[in-house]
Amino acid sequence: MLTAAAVDFAALRAREFARLDAGGHAYLDHTGAALYPECLVAAHTSMLRESILGNPHAENPASRASSAWIASARRRVLEFLDADEGEYAVIFTANATAALGLVASGFHFAQDAPFVLSADNHNSVNGIREFAVRAGAPVHYLALDAELRLDAPRDALATLSGGGLFAFPAQSNFSGVKHPLSLVRHARALGYTVLLDAAAFVPTSRLSLREVPADFVALSFYKLFGYPTGIGALVARRESLAALQRPWFSGGTVRFASVQNRMHELLGSEEAFEDGTANYLGIAAVAAGLGFLLDLDVEEIGRHANELTLRLIEAFASLTHRRGAPLVRVYGPADGRDRGATVAFNVLSASGEAVPFAQVESRARAAMVSVRGGCFCNPGASEAAFGFPAAAAGRCLESASSEGWTLERFGACMRGYPVGAVRASFGLSSNVADLERLVAVVESFAS
Q1: Which residues are CB-contacts of 134 (< 8 A; sequence separation ≥ 6)?
Q2: What would the pLDDT profile of 295-349 be if each residue is shown by its tens digit?
Q3: Which is catalytic among the residues 39, 375, 377, 396?
């Protein structure tokens, strides 16, 4: 196993991601998806060529081989998250969204069991509020401060009734803010069940479920190591999983089901939540992918990515128009304190107005620089970052919707406010040259 000091990121890029430089790409969308290393694709291809794998819902040799790969992947996930197998179960899903949906559909929301969530959340978490509303449960959002950090969340949680579901991201997919993981123990002590969205956090940060005993954790593996897509996981405390009430049953989740007697009995633990046939061929790559990251040391990957992040923020701060007006507005923290490797920003005109993000994205695309534009499925952080007045935004949403909602109609109504940003994010394959190419794109807007 490599030590942290032994990681040579230049050599790693040349060995595992040579296609970047061969194709002239600067890839800066790691929060959207990681890039797969050559060794993982080679190992998985070799395994598929040498193995006979079948539907795991049987006892024939091919099925048992698939079941063995799935069991191995479960163990690797628990190892990666430093979780006790006796305390936590791993449920493989299509993605992190599907993992969150299992909690949303099974949690017992009620008037005295509210849904509490941070304003900074991916829409896959925001959407859980619809289950709460349908059950007649209150929904409470925790506010953000000027740096897009949670604003006094402990006080806010204490003023609300416990016993419900509290959800927040370990790291914002919009701003890169790392919200305090100490909130997990604090909220649980107040009686909350805690759902932690770890999808943006775990690619560059260590998460120990012994230290941070969340009830539910959602993640996607393509965000960790790029391959395969279409597999995520819900990692759940077994006692919390048992408290969920499944609203239906499906193939692969029951001991028996009767049509004539209209009866069924769910399987135990994680098997009751893995609907249908698992992506057993893809899951066979999960153990190798996690092994790749464990050998490199996730914390060392984080240090590498965070160094590039701070360097980009510093470069943006130095960019101005000819008469000295700032060229870039960065959202979220201005320093590296509790910040991940994600930078959301807008390019500014000489008069201080935001250049439409699509124009920046287009110029970056022409330069073969991959960044992301928009609100990144995170309306709460976007609204806070852009300073939307709630009443005005509400009127503009309704007005644009009545005409056939488009971002252009909404933006025209919200005159003076940006309606999207550009996001750059770093990972283990990133280097300074990628950063400099993005800075050159942004600098081309100076006037």
Answers
A1: none
A2: 999 999 999 999 999 999 999 999 999 999 999 999 999 888 899 999 999 999 9
A3: 377
